[in-house]
TrEMBL record:
<dbReference type="InterPro" id="IPR002213">
    <property type="entry name" value="UDP_glucos_trans"/>
</dbReference>
<comment type="similarity">
    <text>Belongs to the UDP-glycosyltransferase family.</text>
</comment>
<dbReference type="Pfam" id="PF00201">
    <property type="entry name" value="UDPGT"/>
</dbReference>
<protein>
    <recommendedName>
        <fullName>Glycosyltransferase</fullName>
        <ecNumber>2.4.1.-</ecNumber>
    </recommendedName>
</protein>
<dbReference type="InterPro" id="IPR050481">
    <property type="entry name" value="UDP-glycosyltransf_plant"/>
</dbReference>
<keyword id="KW-0328">Glycosyltransferase</keyword>
<dbReference type="InterPro" id="IPR035595">
    <property type="entry name" value="UDP_glycos_trans_CS"/>
</dbReference>
<dbReference type="GO" id="GO:0035251">
    <property type="term" value="F:UDP-glucosyltransferase activity"/>
</dbReference>
<keyword id="KW-0808">Transferase</keyword>
C-alpha cells in the first residue's frame, strides 16, 4: 500500500482498556510498515496505582511507530467510578484531544509524513467521535469486550429507540429477551449490568451504543470461531463493518515483570500437571473479610492444590487497584496458612498470563472479565465463573450456557452487595471444575484454544479481518 497512515487511539480509563489498545497498536504496526499509532493516555488523579501501571505500559511499548501522549489528568466526580463520572471525564478531555490532534494534523502535512487516517476509540470514549468529525476523519470503535455483548447492547438500544421499550423496567423484571446472537433466551436482570435498572444510567449506556452506529467500523477483540452466532448477528447492512481480530492478548512483558513472579513459578514447577486451581479476580478484584473466609474454608475442604491471588479492597470505596496484604493472616481463618502449607499458596498480585500458561494449572476461578476469558481460552484452562460487576455476568453466561467451557460458582453475585457466597457453594463449584466435569470442560476449552491460535495465523479469520481493516484505513487517505 502506498503512503503512510496514522491512527489516533483513545483507550478508556483503566488498565485493561489501555493494555488491549496497546496490543492492538502493536498488531497493526507489526502487520504494515506504513502505519503508525499515537495513543492518547487518559489518567484519573484518584487512581495513583493505576496511573503508575499506565506509565510502565507506555514506557515499555513505545517504538518508532507507536508513541504515547499523556493527557492532563481529570478528576472523577466525588471520586466515584460511575458511568456518569467516566463520561463526564471523557467530555472534559475533548479539548485536550482536539489540541493534540491539531498538532498531529499540522505535522503530517508534509508529503513524507503519515497522514491522519482516523480515530480508534474505546467504547467509553464514543463522545470523541465529535472531535474526529471536526477533523473530517472517520472513527472506528475498538470494543474490548465480546461480540455477543456488543450485539446485546445494540439490540437493547434498538428496543429503546425504535420500539420505545423501557429498558430500565425490563432489566428490573424477570423477563427474558430473544437475541439472535445467543442460542438461549437471556434473563437480562441476571446477566446484563445491574446499573441498567436506573433510567438515567441505562439512557447513558445505550446512548453509547447508539453512537457506535456512527463509526465507520467496529474492531472487536474476539475471533469468529468463538462467537460465530454473535458475529453473524452483528454483520448487518445497517451497522458499521465488523472486524473480529482477536484474541488480542498481552502475552509477555508489561507490568507483571517486576512483581517477583519467580517464587510463584518455582512453586508451580513443583506441582503435578493440571493439579492447581488458580483463583484471580482481575486488576480490580477484591473481597470483604467475611467472603475471604468462606473462600478459604472451601479451598481447605476441597483438598485441591491452589494458588490464590488475595488482595485488600481499596479504603472507603476508592477507585484504585487493590493492594496486597502485609499479613494475610489478618483476614484468613486462624491457622489456615499453616494447615494448607502443603496444599496451596496465597499471593498478592498474580502474573496471570504466566500462571495460566503453566502446565501445573488445571482450573481457573475467574471474575470473567473479557481479557481473562480470552487468556483462559488461549491457554486451554477451564473456568469456574464468579462474575462481580460490569459485563462479567454476561461473559459468564456465555462461557457456561453457550460455550460450555465453564462451570458456575455464583452467577448473580454483585460486587458491593451484602450477599456472601457460602463455602459450600464455592466448594461445589471447585469440585465440578476439578473433578466431576473436568474432562468435558477440558476437552471443550482445548478445542477452542486451538481455534484461537489458528485464527491469528496467515489465512485465519482474524488475520484476514485485520487485513480488511488496514485496507479500509488506507482508503481514508485522499
Amino acid at each position: 500500500m502506498s503512503g503512510k497512515a496514522e491512527l489516533v487511539f483513545i483507550p478508556g480509563p483503566g488498565v485493561g482498556h489501555l493494555l488491549s489498545a496497546v496490543e492492538m497498536a502493536k498488531l497493526l504496526v507489526g502487520r504494515d510498515e506504513g502505519l503508525s499509532v499515537t495513543v492518547l493516555v487518559m489518567k484519573l488523579t484518584d487512581s495513583s496505582d493505576m496511573n503508575s501501571i499506565a506509565d510502565s505500559v507506555s514506557a515499555s511499548s513505545s517504538t518508532g511507530r507507536i508513541r504515547f501522549i499523556e493527557l492532563p489528568r481529570a478528576e472523577l466526580q466525588n471520586g466515584s467510578p460511575s458511568l456518569v463520572s467516566f463520561l463526564n471525564a471523557v467530555e472534559a478531555y475533548k479539548s485536550h484531544v482536539r489540541d493534540v490532534v491539531r498538532g498531529l494534523a499540522d505535522s503530517g502535512s508534509g508529503s513524507a509524513s503519515p497522514r491522519l487516517a482516523g480515530f480508534v476509540v474505546d467504547m467509553f470514549c464514543a463522545p470523541m467521535i465529535d472531535v474526529a468529525n471536526e477533523f473530517s476523519v472517520p472513527s472506528y470503535l475498538f470494543f474490548t469486550s465480546s461480540a455477543t455483548f456488543l450485539g446485546a447492547m445494540l439490540h437493547l438500544q434498538a428496543l429503546q429507540d425504535d420500539c420505545q421499550q423501557d429498558i430500565g423496567a425490563l432489566v428490573d423484571s424477570e423477563a427474558t429477551v430473544d437475541y439472535p446472537g445467543l442460542a438461549n433466551p437471556l434473563n437480562i436482570k441476571l446477566y446484563m449490568p445491574s446499573e441498567l435498572r436506573k433510567k438515567d444510567i441505562s439512557s447513558l449506556f445505550l446512548g453509547l451504543a447508539k453512537r457506535f452506529r456512527e463509526t465507520k467500523g467496529i474492531v472487536v477483540n474476539t475471533f469468529e470461531e468463538l462467537e460465530q452466532r454473535a458475529v453473524e448477528a452483528v454483520f448487518d447492512d445497517k451497522l458499521p463493518l465488523l472486524y473480529p481480530v482477536g484474541p488480542i492478548l498481552t502475552l509477555k512483558g508489561g507490568s507483571d515483570d517486576k512483581l517477583g513472579s519467580g517464587d510463584i513459578v518455582k512453586w508451580l514447577d513443583d506441582q503435578p500437571p493440571e493439579s492447581v486451581l488458580f483463583l484471580c479476580f482481575g486488576s480490580m478484584g477484591s473481597f470483604r473479610e467475611d467472603q475471604v473466609r468462606q473462600i478459604a474454608h472451601a479451598l481447605e475442604r476441597s483438598v485441591h492444590r491452589f494458588l490464590w491471588s488475595l488482595r485488600r479492597p481499596p479504603p472507603g470505596g476508592k477507585f484504585d487497584v487493590p493492594q496486597s496484604y502485609d499479613d494475610p493472616n489478618e483476614v484468613l481463618p486462624e491457622g489456615f496458612l499453616e494447615r494448607t502449607a502443603g496444599q496451596g499458596k496465597v499471593i498478592g498480585w498474580a502474573p496471570q498470563v504466566e500462571v495460566l500458561a503453566h502446565p501445573a494449572v488445571g482450573g481457573f476461578v475467574s471474575h470473567c472479565g473479557w481479557n481473562s476469558t480470552l487468556e483462559s481460552i488461549w491457554f486451554g484452562v477451564p473456568v469456574a465463573a464468579w462474575p462481580m460487576y460490569a459485563e462479567q455476568h454476561f461473559n459468564a453466561y456465555a462461557l457456561v450456557e453457550e460455550l460450555g467451557v465453564a462451570v458456575e460458582i455464583r452467577m448473580d453475585y454483585r460486587k458491593g452487595d451484602e450477599v456472601t457466597v457460602t463455602a459450600e457453594e464455592i466448594e461445589r463449584g471447585i469440585r465440578r471444575l476439578m473433578e466431576t466435569e473436568r474432562e468435558d470442560k477440558k476437552e471443550k476449552v482445548r478445542l477452542m484454544s486451538e481455534k484461537s491460535r489458528r485464527a491469528l495465523m496467515e489465512g485465519g479469520s482474524s488475520h484476514s479481518n485485520l487485513g480488511r481493516f488496514i485496507k479500509d484505513v488506507y482508503n481514508n487517505i485522499p
